[in-house]
Design a protein that fits this description.
Blueprint lengths: L37 H11 L10
Length: 58
């Protein structure tokens, strides 16, 4: 049997998940190609209204 380089490394075939409690906030997702200003728009929105808008912590 011929092993490829991919077969030699340990692979994680699942991602562990945990159920989180419900929350009462809305989610806004900014989608766009690189360089169209998503980061600038996100920063402006969070500066204008920090009580209502925030960013995620990865």
């Amino acid at each position: 049997m011929l092993l490829t380089e991919f077969d030699r490394y340990e692979r994680h075939i699942y991602e562990e998940m945990a159920k989180m409690p419900l929350f009462q906030r809305k989610t806004l997702v900014l989608i766009g190609a690189q360089g169209v200003g998503r980061h600038s728009l996100k920063n402006r929105l969070t500066v204008i209204n920090p009580q209502c808008l925030g960013t995620t912590v990865p």
